[in-house]
Design a protein that fits this description.
Helices cover 57% and strands 9% of the residues. It is built from 22 helices and 8 strands. The model is unreliable at 351-364 and 429-444 (pLDDT under 50).
């Protein structure tokens, strides 16, 4: 996500960092390039104009231009204004002190509303809360069955009703939730291919009749400014409390994310980062701003690691690294952890400085983890423990057994050898060649 914008902003700021002294004209020229980069990223033109004016006003101040590192100071100003543009601070869901908390999902058809309801239910279930999913979309074929399927996958309850009246369904669901001591009720309402009067009337009736504690507007980030325009209309006609941007992992431009708060006045609360049910993340403006500027997102990386890495396994791995006994079996285990954390490309974007490195075929590498697993599985336990014994004939056997080429096996062994070298450097406190670990190719 934001790949194109990050690359262009990095090119602009590289020029600034390379100058020992900055003049007002230098800043203005940089801001012109920033404006073009944002417009090409499909950011709302009014938002771009206001953003650039704010940055330029602060960046040409005497304390900036006269500082020892004026380029870095300008980047700092841009980062702070980006954080402000994205909402300033994290906006959490407001949970009722008198359960159940009712959350109403709204948006157009195809935005990912139903799937997001399932993801949100999973998050609450993981926190130990009792959740009820309510299928209130009686118009779209199979919408009710889709939500019931998601409920089974997540392990929560789905409300059933004989009624085909969405308002009646939502009222009955809330009454049922109160009697059955549910803590969270998530209403999956109907959508349309475009906004129309009957849809908005139906949603207003549900909102008035059920009085949800949170109304979340779900938008497809891939549609760019169209998503922002739709959000503005929904907010004007219905009103909502926050935004969920889906498919943000596939949005290389980022216009919707950078515009929606400024246009609607409502914060982004969650982002959908994939199709799996665990791919719904809380939105942190400061972390997102850092990622846009190529500064990484260490906190999110740590949180992902904590969710996926078993503490006992981590301790065993640390011991092996300390004893320099890290082998191919351990390597395979680490690649599986990388896959659980969202893939190599996702992790690279969270490591400061690494997002600017051109990792060869990062997206392909994530898919090739299956091939790596096959190659290592074709080795004997002795070969996994000591890769140096793998000679030419063994490599041919491993390639044949894994359905790959000898070149694939060679590539994997070379990458593993480089990783071992890096582990030894890290053990000795030498970090300068850390990028090597990420520069190696996985077998193709």
């Amino acid at each position: 996500m934001f790949d194109a914008l990050t690359g262009k902003l990095d090119a602009v700021f590289k020029k600034l960092r390379g100058r020992g002294v900055l003049k007002e004209e230098d800043v203005k020229e940089a801001m012109r390039e920033v404006r073009l980069a944002l417009l090409e990223a499909d950011v709302n033109f009014k938002v771009v104009k206001e953003f650039v004016n704010k940055v330029q006003e602060r960046a040409v101040g005497r304390e900036i231009l006269a500082s020892l590192t004026p380029g870095q100071q300008v980047i700092k100003v841009v980062h702070e204004e980006l954080v402000s543009l994205l909402g300033g601070t994290q906006s959490k869901l407001h949970l009722s002190s008198n359960p159940p908390t009712v959350i109403m999902m709204v948006g157009l058809q195809g935005s990912g509303k139903t799937t997001t309801a399932g993801k949100l239910a999973r998050n609450f279930k993981k926190d130990g809360r009792k959740v009820l999913l309510v299928p209130a979309d009686t118009r779209r074929p199979a919408a009710i069955e889709q939500l019931k399927t998601l409920a089974r996958q997540v392990g929560v309850d789905a409300f059933t009703s004989e009624s085909m009246d969405p308002v009646a369904i939502c009222r009955a669901a809330r009454d049922f939730a109160e009697r059955s001591l549910f803590e969270v009720v998530i209403l999956d309402t109907a959508g349309r291919l475009q906004i129309d009067a009957p849809l908005m009337d139906e949603l207003r009736q549900i909102k008035t009749g059920v009085k949800p504690h949170e109304v979340l507007f779900v938008a497809d980030a891939m549609t760019g400014q169209e998503a922002v325009n739709i959000a503005e209309t929904f907010n004007k006609d219905l009103g909502f409390d926050g935004v969920v941007l889906t498919k943000l992992d596939g949005d290389a431009r980022g216009g919707a994310a950078l515009s929606v708060k400024a246009v609607t006045g409502r914060p982004i609360k969650f982002t959908g980062m994939g199709e799996k049910l665990d791919a719904l993340e809380p939105f942190f403006p400061d972390r997102m701003a850092s990622r846009i500027l190529g500064m990484g997102d260490v906190m999110s990386l740590i949180e992902k690691a904590q969710e996926t890495v078993n503490a006992e396994e981590a301790a065993k791995l640390a011991k092996k690294l300390k004893q320099s006994s890290f082998d191919l079996e351990d390597f395979r285990g680490q690649l599986k952890q990388v896959k659980k954390m969202g893939g190599l490309g996702s992790i690279m974007g969270m490591i400061p400085g690494m997002s600017k490195m051109k990792l060869p075929d990062a997206d392909v590498n994530d898919k090739e983890l299956v091939k790596v697993d096959a190659i290592i599985s074709s080795m004997t336990p002795r070969e996994r423990a000591n890769h140096t014994i793998i000679n030419g004939s063994r490599r041919a056997r491993i390639a044949k057994g894994s359905g790959t080429q000898v070149q694939d096996v060679n590539r994997l062994l070379k990458q593993f050898a480089e990783m071992q070298k890096m582990m030894k450097m890290m053990k000795g406190g030498k970090m300068k060649d850390m990028g090597r670990m990420f520069g190696g190719r996985l077998p193709r």
